[in-house]
Amino acid sequence: MHEYPITEHIVKMSEKRCREAGGRKVVTINLVLGENSGFVPESIHMYFDLIAEGTLCEGAEITIKRIGTKLKCPSCGELFTRKPLSFACPKCGTDGEPTDTGKEFYIESIEVE
Amino acid sequence: MHDVKKVDVMEGILDENDHIAGHVKEHMEDHGILVVNEMGSPGAGKTTSLKNIIRHLKSAKPYVIEGDIESDLDTRDLRGLGIKTFQINTFGNCHLDAPMIHNMTGNMEFDEKGILFIENIGNLVCPAEFSIGEHLKMLVSTVTEGSDKPYKYPLAFEKADLILINKVDLIPYLDFDEEFFMKGVRALNKNVPVFKVSGKTGEGFAEVAAWLESRASELTDRGHHEGHVHKHSHE
Hints:
The structure holds 2 protein chains of 2 kinds.
Chain A: H1 3-20, E1 26-34, H2 41-52, E2 61-67, E3 71-72, E4 79-80, E5 97-98, E6 105-112
Parallel strand pairs in A: 1-2
Antiparallel strand pairs in A: 1-6, 3-4, 3-5
Helix pairs in contact in A: 1-2
Chain B: E1 5-12, H1 15-30, E2 33-40, H2 46-55, E3 61-68, H3 73-80, E4 84-89, H4 98-106, E5 114-119, E6 136-142, H5 149-152, H6 154-159, E7 162-166, H7 178-188, E8 194-196, H8 205-233
Parallel strand pairs in B: 2-5, 2-6, 3-4, 3-5, 6-7, 7-8
Helix pairs in contact in B: 1-4, 2-8
């Protein structure tokens, strides 16, 4: 549910960049969203059309690139995706440590006309 | 047909929030205030933990901001104990964010140095994602929620600077697997201090209060020192 204010912010950021680039409207917004960012793509899509109405983003398409969460094994260095209820490295069994991969949440680019 | 132009943005959605959080932190440091963002599920005992911690504070003055979706029950409760408490109602929003705290702290008076506790909305997911200007994130987990919580809500445990395991007086009646719980905590957060507490019996909170006071005094020592250097640089 916290995607609502976040989506409002995405619309505002995109409008600002569109104006700065001399555009009249935003056609596409390319987002990058890590699986461990805590934000749900379906909810962003759901709120977007509603929020974008009457703004420079009305009718724009949002593309969302998902990035999977990775842990890093402190023993063997393996980067891996964890299994439910476990942090164990699939190679050596040591518990992996959190990394920044999967926490991404940014606008990569927008397309304007 | 109009030309479509691609504009590189590469800007984090939360950058603005984090920027404002930085201002809040700076403002609080100017007043010698350590900011603690208290997170936990609904019913974990966040308000009860605050009351217990504050009871044990020796020199730091407590200030509280209560975040709730609705109602001011906890605020009235804390004010009844003479604790300077301010209410934020989010009316549906599942977490506090930096602009809300910025607005609130801008209107508060901090007459003495101390600790500002910000009780976040009861939720183990969203509050972990938003900085609100805190120095420390304090996570209240409980034995009644079960030992799998670090595995199911890893971000909250990863980001915590201290963790309380509350309701430990109930351990004899539950199947809480402390070893499994701590294995998850340590995988996510190797050195985080973990305190076992009970809001019912009050055990463990004196240690939490002492730990927080020592963080608060580190902050004011540093602030004092920096203030000194700053002053001299103008002479």
